[in-house]
């Protein structure tokens, strides 16, 4: 885990479990997974309370969007949480995501962020602030944040409901 964290922070790719890139999933993919997971975890911890609904939502999102098994999700969350706690700022994570995700993928991530923010049934002021900050750092189109929020809370026209697939 420490090797994977060092690789992410130094910008060098590392595969899951800290193994060299090229064995298993690509290092770039793993760095992207760590970065996206770290952003979701930062948002979940924004109100100083990491609730079970938030954990469940992040876990389900990682399984669905990265096609990971339960043990892989737990390992990813551990690496991402350590990276998040050791980071000086969140730019190292948002820059990885912005570089590797196209606009549609960044929009999906923004919606996942709103879903995490609302997973415990309430939106703290800091969660709201962080979601908006991440959207700016991820270079999302103006106005998309409100659309993503509406979809995440079930008030959008897409038919998605909080915690639903999408």
N-to-C order of helices and strands:
HHHHHHHH
General shape: globular
Approximately what portion of the residues adopt beta-strand conformation?
Answer: under 5%
Fourth-tier CATH superfamily name: TerB-like
User: Percent range for helical residues?
Assistant: 55-70%
Mean pLDDT, rounded to whole units?
Answer: 79
Q: Using the coordinates above, name the CATH class.
A: Mainly Alpha
Report the sheet with the most strands, covering strand number, pairing sense and barrel closure.
none
Can you name the CATH architecture?
Answer: Orthogonal Bundle
Features:
166 residues; globular; TerB-like; disordered C terminus; mainly alpha; disordered N terminus; 0% strand
Report what the structure shows.
The N terminus and C terminus are likely disordered. The chain has eight helices and no strands. The chain has one domain: Orthogonal Bundle (TerB-like). The protein is mainly alpha-helical and 166 residues long.
